[in-house]
């Protein structure tokens, strides 16, 4: 079977289903206010600030580079081996902490905060800034694909069997704006043996911007140990 | 027409076509060794270092957070308005400097360095680290989609008319590894009126991991001014 797994959390499905709340339980890791999550939140602000600033402000960016390099050197020197770190990442709750969409330890992640709904769909709202730009003032089509691939994976974990993405089709109906709240949804629609079909979309102001249809295969890559 | 533009550079097509060189001209902005590009390169190292380190090393991550916040505050205070910055970004060579795939000013970009080939295809090699992880030790399926959407857009600029992504289909044939050189290619295959078809793939060690087929519509969003 030739497939590609989507990262998705081992969501606490049984325990966390809501009784009647309109917004269901959070399906992704909660960011902590201290430690690596705080440093990553600051790194995210910095990525945006660098893009908002650019080269023309007279800021001493070479000094900034030296400062950031020094922090990176210090952290790298103290880091575990990649093998050990991978094993640590994939234990327990770690699995939802590092991905590039929802992970509080990953500065690439906006992060998107996904909740499970009673109807087995998942949903999150996110506002994107300049790092996620494609066409002028709008979200990059590949970023929409990234958000949707991940959201479909989480929808599988929430709604039924989950697996690896085999095929993903995106349809771009209208440009997706930066700087405005975007609603990202996903929902598992069918399971036929090992074949799982899941759909999702991104909307802004109640209008659908991008839709996604995914075919997933019910298998997983082994976790490192 | 409901479509979504893919960021792609206004590549210097006519002037830069190679005569016989195996690797054609670079189609994306060259990173400078100083200024904002240097700061962004350091920010990229930092994003990876934070993920490689995690919370368990005893590093004073709250101090790191304060330091990064201070830099972000300083840059933000000196930055132009977003309107002015958008106008600046979309002038001249700026268009290839800030996207989340190839942009030297965007710390989300690995960055992927794409070159044009004689046969009108485009190609780049990139090795991805932990920020781009989906399944254990492998590239996130949505990251592959991001790289391919962008590469197909650049292939359109290199090979013929270009436009906005209307539809993108990804097929995941096998997991895409982290920490190994990945070859990313794109090639425009047909133009029928305003409908442009473009394909691409990501391979590792000579084996195809992900393929992409895109339908693009020959139009663009206006540039801010």
UniProtKB/TrEMBL annotation, chains A, B:
GO terms for molecular function: hydrolase activity. Residues 27-84 form the RHA1-ro05818 N-terminal helical domain. GO terms for biological process: fatty acid metabolic process. Its EC number is 3.1.2.2. One of its GO terms (cellular component) is cytoplasm. It catalyses: (5Z,8Z,11Z,14Z)-eicosatetraenoyl-CoA + H2O = (5Z,8Z,11Z,14Z)-eicosatetraenoate + CoA + H(+); octanoyl-CoA + H2O = octanoate + CoA + H(+); dodecanoyl-CoA + H2O = dodecanoate + CoA + H(+); (9Z)-octadecenoyl-CoA + H2O = (9Z)-octadecenoate + CoA + H(+). Gene3D superfamilies: Hotdog Thioesterase, Thioesterase/thiol ester dehydrase-isomerase. Belongs to the THEM4/THEM5 thioesterase family. PANTHER family: ACYL-COENZYME A THIOESTERASE THEM4. This is Acyl-coenzyme A thioesterase THEM4. It comes from Streptomyces nitrosporeus.
């Amino acid at each position: 079977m030739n497939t590609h797994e989507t990262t998705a959390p081992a969501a606490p499905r049984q325990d966390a289903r809501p009784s009647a709340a309109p917004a269901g339980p959070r399906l992704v890791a909660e960011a902590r206010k201290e430690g690596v999550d705080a440093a990553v939140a600051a790194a995210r602000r910095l990525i945006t600030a660098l893009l908002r600033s650019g080269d023309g402000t007279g800021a001493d960016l070479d000094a900034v580079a030296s400062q950031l390099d020094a922090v990176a050197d210090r952290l790298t020197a103290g880091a575990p081996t990649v093998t050990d770190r991978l094993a640590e990442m994939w234990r327990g709750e770690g699995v939802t902490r590092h991905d590039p969409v929802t992970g509080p330890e990953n500065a690439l992640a906006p992060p998107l905060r996904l909740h499970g709904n009673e109807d087995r769909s998942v949903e999150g709202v996110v506002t994107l800034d300049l790092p996620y730009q494609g066409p002028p003032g709008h979200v990059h089509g590949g970023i929409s694909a990234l958000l949707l691939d991940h959201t479909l994976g989480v929808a599988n974990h929430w709604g039924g069997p989950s697996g690896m993405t085999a095929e993903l089709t995106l349809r771009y109906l209208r440009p997706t704006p930066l700087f405005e709240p975007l609603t990202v949804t996903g929902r598992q629609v069918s399971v036929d043996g090992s074949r799982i079909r899941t759909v999702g979309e991104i909307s802004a102001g109640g209008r659908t911007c991008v839709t996604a249809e995914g075919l997933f295969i019910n298998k997983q890559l082994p976790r490192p140990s």
